[in-house]
Amino acid sequence: MPQGAGDHGRNDVPGRVMDNNADTGSTPAADRAPPRSAAATIAVVLGSIGLLGAMATDAIAVLGRHTGFSLLGSIEIVQTMIVLLASSAIVLATLERNHAAVHILTERLAPRRAALLARLASAVSAMIVAVLLIGALWLLSDLWNAHERSELLHIPFRVLRAIFAATLLIVSVIFAWQAVARRTQ
């Protein structure tokens, strides 16, 4: 019986090496991520800052509830960190072509046709995100002088909207680039 085909990587047969990834069929060498681009690294760092900021804020708030002090505005801080986290995640997923996709049709097509459909999907995605960007910029311009702020910490919403608009611009450009660039992977 081949390794991983029912034995789940057990090492009870002489000469057999244990494969901890037998259920997935992957090997540690195959699990290594390819080197990231500078843009992907920046997105990971910014997302990590958002995630760590949200986690630290929430941990301090929970600790404070149990020890008798409160972290004023902890929810507002977490919400702000989520904007940073979600924005970087969207950019990273687009850069690495990791958006959710169903390949029922494209896996049955010839590679050239599948590549053509992938380019078409990227072009359509760029246009859809560009429309969302237009709406985000419209809201940003209409509410710029409204000076909307969060209730407790007075975090300006226009900065968060600007981060969202910048994210949409970056994602639209990446999709457009993917629509015209030759895929190297």
Helix content: 55-70%
What is the tally of helical segments?
5
Mean pLDDT, to the nearest integer, reads 84
Number of strands: 0
Question: Helix and strand string, N-terminal first?
Answer: HHHHH
**Per DSSP, what share of the residues sits in E-state strands of 2 or more residues?**
under 5%
Radius of gyration: 23 Å
Overall geometry: globular
Largest sheet: none
The first-to-last residue Cα distance is 33 Å
Structural class designation? mainly alpha
Low-confidence stretches: 1-13, 16-22
Description:
This protein is an all-alpha fold and 185 residues long. The chain is 61% helix and 0% strand. It is built from five helices and no strands. It has helices at 28-31, 38-67, 74-95, 111-142, 157-180. Helix 2 packs antiparallel against helix 3 and helix 3 (74-95) packs parallel to helix 5. The longest helix is centred in the C-terminal third of the chain and has 32 residues, at 111-142. Mean pLDDT is 84; it is low at 1-13 and 16-22.
